[in-house]
Amino acid sequence: MSELKCIHGKADCFYEHYERKGEAQHQTHYCPGCGHGIAHKLLAESIDELGIRDRVILVSPVGCSVFLYYYFDVGNVQVAHGRAPAVATALKRAHPEAIVISYQGDGDLAAIGSAEILHAANRGENYTSIFINNAIYGMTGGQMAPTTLMGNRTTTTPFGRNVFNDGYPLHVSEVIATLEAPTYVERAALGNTKQILQAKKAIKKALETQMKGLGFSMVEILSPCPTIWKMDPVDAQKHVREGLAAVYPLGAKRDRTKEAEPRPAHIPAPALEELPRILKLDKGSDAAMPAHHETVDFRVKVAGFGGQGVLLLGQLLAEAGMDYGLEVSWLPSYGPEMRSGTSNCHVRLSNKPVDSPFVSSPNVLIALNEPSLRKFISTVEPGGLVFYNGTAIPADCVRADLRMHPIPFFAVADELGSTKVGNIVVLGALLSATGVLPLEVVDHALPRVVKAEKWIEIDRQALRRGASLLCPEVPVHV
Amino acid sequence: MPACAIEEAIDIKGYVEIDPEECKGCGLCVAACVQKVLSLSPQLNRYGYHPATNEEKPCNGCGLCFYACPEPGAIRVFKAID
């Protein structure tokens, strides 16, 4: 006599009881005939068969499958709508030994989360994405999804999906397969038992791809939604087979599992204490920090053409001020102007905490061109300093209540070998006129701001040349 | 489930056990069953569904109904092992 043995039953991966609201804790919350339950079973069996249950972290989405964590006895993170790929990326990088599986519907993955999935796939993140495509928003009651078939009536396309109004059904797997990085992308379906078993093979293969460290894997699963489709479950299954699968062809869209090499381990971020050295922020930190007995309140506006070194001048001044023990702020303001547009920045140096980095009434204006001078001259506080890159202040810009220094800074820089250091010449002049910082402090800060070594020496010369320009003070030309 | 009935059956190749309280009566297993062993019960379960039933008839234990079923634990498939 033969013995009867249970060959198919509830996967170990499922909880025995689903601890959710209400009394129905022995069945899922899905509608009769819903594809999610089948997909859950396939995933649970695959996890059991691969023996990875203790390593799995599931990322549950927003949508009908939001309650994954009621069913799967594995690690779980429930994420915001569409953000599963970003969270899965973080989980996998932080826990490379974990098997990270995101589970998303088409409203979640193909609509609000389309950017996330595209970039995670494009980075080849080594996690597995299970993408349930039922061509509709189910949980919210049947709105059109990007995957909805042409002509389908939904609550948001009551006259049927129209190409000119709503575009075409989005073929996510094909789109992902155009990217270079993904290792395995397959579209499966739940239209009959044969398709269901093929879907399980695909899920298992995707998980194995991740276990081998080969990179991004995704299984799109065409799935029935009898309730929203207004079909009985058997007809809905038929519609998956004949309707959906006709528009979304099944099969592997990308399979590089044989030739792909395991991805190298993700390089962890350096320790916090290493950062100053790596970012070269440790240079100059040995500068003397004198006590500031006098009140320092420099509100500097630097303005000029993009490319003149406006931002760098301000940054260098702020960095040096910080080294000198002052409170500083640097606020760049730039639009789409890499070259020949206007650019300006706000710098504050103070011996008190800076309340706002915004400088609306500067007491120092550095105008590297005439438009900048005209734009900002009226904002300068009485008694303030003005450095203007030119041989003379235009007559209509002269203000008797200011100390104005027109100097052709860039011509001076040219004599030193490069007009590019004109901004540093200005800084030298500013420091000598005000005495706010010793030149050596700027020397210390320079390598942090100017990365290319070859400029540092000429910058130091430019700083000193600039400092020599204002001795004696250049008279104002009217 | 009539365990004793199974044990007493000598020639059966397989058997399907359905939990009538987990079943939602979607009918996918009935459609998947090539041996036509399954049907929807005329009885309602406590949630108002007509659950699937095999009326205690044996089958070949192919397992197609199991994969068609969306509920994790509604169907268990037994197969005769020599």
Characterization of the model:
- The complex is a heterodimer of chains A (478) and B (82).
- Chain A has 478 residues and is α/β, with parallel strands linked by helices.
- Chain A has two domains: 35-255, Thiamin diphosphate (ThDP)-binding fold, Pyr/PP domains (Rossmann fold); 274-469, Pyruvate-ferredoxin oxidoreductase, PFOR, domain III (Pyruvate-ferredoxin Oxidoreductase, domain 3, 3-Layer(aba) Sandwich), CATH 3.40.920.10.
- Chain A has helices at 35-50, 68-71, 84-94, 106-112, 114-122, 163-166, 172-177, 193-211, 226-229, 233-247, 275-278, 310-323, 370-376, 409-416, 422-434, 439-449, 453-469, and strands at residues 3-8, 56-60, 75-78, 99-105, 128-133, 184-189, 217-222, 251-255, 297-305, 327-334, 342-350, 364-367, 385-389, 403-407.
- In chain A, strand 12 (364-367), helix 13 (370-376) and strand 13 (385-389) form a beta-alpha-beta unit.
- In chain A, helix 4 (106-112) packs across helix 5 (114-122) and helix 12 crosses helix 16.
- Chain A starts with a strand and ends in a 9-residue tail after the last helix.
- Mean pLDDT of chain A is 91; it is low at 472-478.
- Chain B has one domain (3-79): Alpha-Beta Plaits, CATH 3.30.70.20.
- Chain B has a two-stranded antiparallel sheet. In chain B, strands 2-3 form a two-stranded antiparallel sheet.
- The longest helix of chain B has 6 residues, at 3-8.
- The radius of gyration of chain B is 12 Å and the shape is globular.
- The two termini of chain B are 22 Å apart.
- The relative contact order of chain B is 0.32.
- The chains are: A alpha/beta (478), B alpha+beta (82).
- The interface between A and B is large, with 40 and 38 residues.
- Strand 1 of chain A pairs antiparallel with strand 4 of chain B, so a sheet runs across the interface.
